[in-house]
Amino acid sequence: MIGEALNPLASLDKQKALFEKETGIKVTIEQRAFDQVLEKTTADFAGKTGIYDLFLNPHVQLATLVTNRWVRPIDEFLRDHKLNDPQFNLERDVISKGWLHSTLGYKGQLYGVPFSAHTIYLNWRWDVFEHPEEIKAFRAKYGYDLPSPPVTMSQLRDTAEFFTRKKGQKLAGATLAHDIYGITLSGKRHVSTLWNWYNFLYAFNGTVVDAPTGDDYGKVVVNSDAAMASLELYKELITKFAPPGSLTYTWDEQLAALQTGLAMSALLWADASYAISVDPTQSKVIGKMAYSGTPIQRRKISNLHQWGMFIPASSKHPAAAWLFLQWTQRPEIQAKLMSTGSISLSERSYQVSDVYKIDYAPTHYFILAGRPLVVQGRPALRKRGSAWGLPPEYLSAKDPVTGKTTAEPFKLERFPEYIRMQDILQRYLSDILAGRYSPREGLNQAANEIRKAIPKLK
User: Fold this and answer.
1) Which of 323, 333, 385, 415 is the most exposed place for a label (fewest CB within 10 A)?
2) CA distance 375 to 60
3) For all residues of the chain together, what is the average pLDDT?
4) Model-level pTM?
5) Is 265 helix (H, G, I), strand (E, B) or coil?
6) In what order do the strands lie in the sheet with 55-58?
7) What are the distances in angstroms from CA 162 to CA 257, 263, 353?
8) Whole-number percent of the chain with pLDDT over 70
9) CB 450 within 8 A of CB 421
10) Is residue 430 helix, strand or coil?
């Protein structure tokens, strides 16, 4: 097996001895940088050398894998009763069948099993947001109560401005030894900036391509009025209320800004939350950071994303690989993976105390399931003065379009040529944030270039 070298995969590497003892099958897990994973798997699949029997991949690349015939559907294994683990029932055990099939399925077939079902959501410093002096000062300046968490985009903008302070000023009763900032966002010409902006885009009810699903082609609408407005806000936040140098930031720098207390809020991947709220060797803000959904503008959204485990078409040991994949879905294995940074799609793992006690677990469960996590008969809701739990303010907030309290997962384009579109958008976003284009000029040019690069789009 090969995958990106992150804590959850290292955890799986440690746990594999249990599988080896149970089955007699030897498992080797190769942990590499993500770019190396892509390079090595592409060479293996294209050359049909059969080096790897399993690999980790983000779901947005599934269409490319299927089109190239590099991945096997798991339906054939599900029909083989001789290979079925009696404890395994993927459809029964996942929190959301919709999430499973939207990320690991393609054109009616399922190709993988979940590894980490994470999303980008709001991280905020509840201890600062709920300090009495800050509450009083915010109301005096903005005329409404300091929200903890910010539930709307306008609240996010106001709190980002409010908590941007200079050295020597006070924050939560203490004099600052250095400048601090209300928010941290990515601004580098990198996929991190694109994905962060996607959350703003979809919250404003925009999209890149107007199509029924992410697999379909349609009309390019990334230069819509909604897209312009979302990018104007993103640009204001990163240029006025984020740390200097943010135009060179990726997720790594955002994470560091939160861990060190340099920034008071962020939109960041959930798999980074472990390094903020659990690992004392990395974070200075353990117990001070809480988690909520992406703030609402015209939609209450979440971004659909999944790292899956797949069996390549060139595998020399597909049956053994399938046994291992089933074993990874056992609740006790999923619980250990989640306690080291993955985000489980397994319903039963969230009833394990080591999982549901994690500060961010209830919020992420709600985003995946559309319903609150119930622990020992009670909803896992956050109380003021605590880092743990789903914020009731976010739970009760309604989608302005549907009137529902659930967060609508937005589709991401994943047709085989999507990488061309991604590269174009990254380039123009970087130029817009740096001031080389206005949002309107840059997005208009990006839309035209995308149409030329992918003729199937209108």
Assistant:
1) 385
2) 33
3) 94
4) 0.92
5) strand
6) 30-32, 2-4, 55-58, 307-310, 112-116
7) 17, 12, 37
8) 100
9) yes
10) helix
